[in-house]
Specification:
It contains six helices and 14 strands. It is an alpha+beta fold. The strands form two sheets. Strands 5, 6, 7, 8, 9, 10, 11, 12, 13 and 14 form a ten-stranded mixed β-sheet that branches. The chain has a four-stranded antiparallel β-sheet with strand order 1-4-2-3, covered by helices on one side. The longest helix is centred in the middle third of the chain and has 12 residues.
């Protein structure tokens, strides 16, 4: 497989709707279906900077597929998840990077064996709670937990999950009303000034990525309060407080302000004719959910 070591492949309109395996076979001349599927199963393929073990994933025209020289790190295990608080209604955990909070809708019907190759945080939590609960699980099973918010795959930090229907309803209402307190730590490129970034975010800003729009009454209102904590050579350590909680909000707002996060592989295009090169070699997006407050 040496022909593809560390090489990026850029999907275009011809690849829209194609499976990852189909596109790879077209790019990797002379490789069989078995070769391609083995690459994916060996954790050597990333899409948009994130490991992908799903040979049937459908590509978009803007996707960047990379074949890694070496297999990616093993998936997160239950013992990697730290429980910060739990009772019979909620559990607060520290999410490690590299694990998805919940399974995407199109993945929910995957066979059990396929899910186990890349488990999600909510799927691991029953096993984590069985370990720390200090009491036997009724009927040999741990009740499932329910996600009430999400963190990006490469973002680490605090998350709360509901353990009862009552807690799920209450927490979901708090997140909908933006009454929760969320503080993030981030490292961004360049010298970042204190500011409040406010925009309306849409799913497709015109290139297939999420971003801000200038159109009134389109998209979702998003507000991020940014405060520098420490100036570093070429970078700034930031505190980011969310007034709203939109998908990729901090990453988008800082990138559009000309200061993408270290390790950013999606929102790293030039904005306002400015381009800052990321020489940090950060292995992931430098974003950590440091504080989470809610009424309980």
């Amino acid at each position: 497989m040496s022909a593809a070591h560390g090489k990026n492949y850029h999907a275009d309109d011809r690849h829209t709707g194609q499976t990852l395996a189909t596109a790879l076979r077209g790019w990797l001349t002379g490789k069989s279906w078995g070769d391609v599927k083995k690459l994916i199963a060996q954790r050597r393929v990333a899409v948009n900077g994130n490991l992908c073990v799903d040979a049937g994933r459908k590509l978009r025209a803007t996707d960047v597929v990379k074949v890694l020289e070496h297999p990616a790190a093993a998936p997160v295990e239950p013992h990697d998840v730290r429980v910060r608080y739990f009772d019979r209604h909620v559990v607060v955990v520290e999410k490690p990077p590299g694990v998805t909070s919940t399974r995407h809708h199109e993945e929910r019907d995957w066979p059990k064996r396929r899910k186990q190759m890349q488990p999600t945080l909510d799927e691991m939590l029953p096993h984590v709670l069985a370990r720390v609960g200090r009491r036997p699980v009724k009927g040999g099973r741990t009740p499932p937990v329910r996600a009430v918010h999400r963190l990006d795959r490469e973002t680490s930090g605090l998350m709360v999950f509901a353990r009862s229907p009552e807690a799920a309803a209450e927490l979901m209402q708090q997140f909908r009303q933006h009454s929760t307190q969320r503080r993030y730590l981030a490292i961004a490129l360049g010298d970042v000034a204190e500011q409040t970034i406010e925009s309306r975010l849409v799913r497709d800003r015109g290139d297939g990525r999420r971003g801000s729009t200038t159109l009134a009454n389109v998209g979702k209102h998003a507000v991020t309060h940014v405060r520098p904590l420490e100036s570093l050579p070429g970078y700034t350590l930031l505190e980011c407080r969310l007034e709203t909680g939109r998908t990729h909000q901090i990453r988008i707002h800082l990138a559009e302000a000309g200061h993408p996060l270290c390790g950013e592989k999606v929102y790293n295009q030039p904005y306002a004719a400015r381009r800052i090169v990321d020489n940090s070699r950060a292995p992931r997006v430098a974003l950590h959910a440091a504080e989470l407050g809610f009424v309980h």
